[in-house]
Amino acid sequence: MKKILFAAFIVAVATSLFYVKPLRFLMPYLSGVKCYGSICVDDSSKLQSALSLYSSAVEELRKVGITIQHNLKFVYCTTSKCYESFGGGRERAISFPFLGTVISPESWQAYISQHELVHWFQFSEIGAISTMKKPEWFREGMAYYFSGATDSDIPTHYLPIIEKYRVWHSNKSWTEVIEESINVK
Q1: Residue 122, class by beta-carbon neighbours within 10 Å (0-12 exposed, 13-18 middle, 19+ buried)?
Q2: What are the tens digits of pLDDT across the range 40-86?
Q3: Residue 118 and which of 11, 33, 161, 166 are 20 to 30 A apart at CA?
């Protein structure tokens, strides 16, 4: 009976990894990436670029008072196949709470990594579920506002959202932002 239960467990895990793509962050090497610490790439020759993007993003956010608590799993993909294998779709990058972030081939810019790190800051400080329930102007407004992206690389429909967040955030300390985020609806 134990062997049958163990076999069923293995089949369930394998099936989950196949169909629930974000779960591949748990064993990213099964999707053909190589990880060096928390940074993974599908092309080892691009490792230094990925490490540089991640570390510069962390440093830029530190300058504005956003600290990242721990090393997060970031997968930098050079192919669409890699990106899609972790659950990426039409967006440029996506973060899955509790699992990791995947960066698409066309999104190897520090501000994209910064944007996703802001989401991780939100998950850490506000809670992943709570963050996902917040309105778009708060979630994406904060992420774009602190990403350092140029206006020309921000979809125009996000510009008013960023401004709404900027006004809400102005003159608040990070402690106040976190405390007052509870009331954001």
Answers
A1: buried
A2: 999 999 999 999 999 999 999 999 999 887 778 999 999 999 999 88
A3: 33
pLDDT > 60? residue 11? no
Q: Give domain status of residue 18, yes or no.
A: no
Tell whether 2 is covered by a domain: no
Residue identified by tokens 């060096």 is 36
In this prediction, residue 17 carries a pLDDT of: 47
Say if 157 falls within a structural domain. yes
Q: Which residues contact 63 (CB under 8 A, 6 or more apart)?
A: none
Q: Sign (positive/negative) of CA torsion 155, 160, 164, 166?
A: positive
Structure tokens at 71: 């090393």
With a cut of 80, say whether residue 107 has pLDDT above it. Answer: yes
In a domain, 81, yes or no: yes
pTM: 0.87
| Structural domain range at position 70 | 26-181
- CA 126 – CA 20 distance, rounded (Å): 25
Number of domains in the chain: 1
Rounded to an integer, what distance in angstroms lies between the CA atom of residue 65 and that of residue 149? 18
pLDDT at position 117 over 50: yes
* C-alpha R_g of the chain: 18
Where does residue 149 fall: left (phi above 0), alpha (psi -120 to 50 degrees), or beta otherwise?
beta
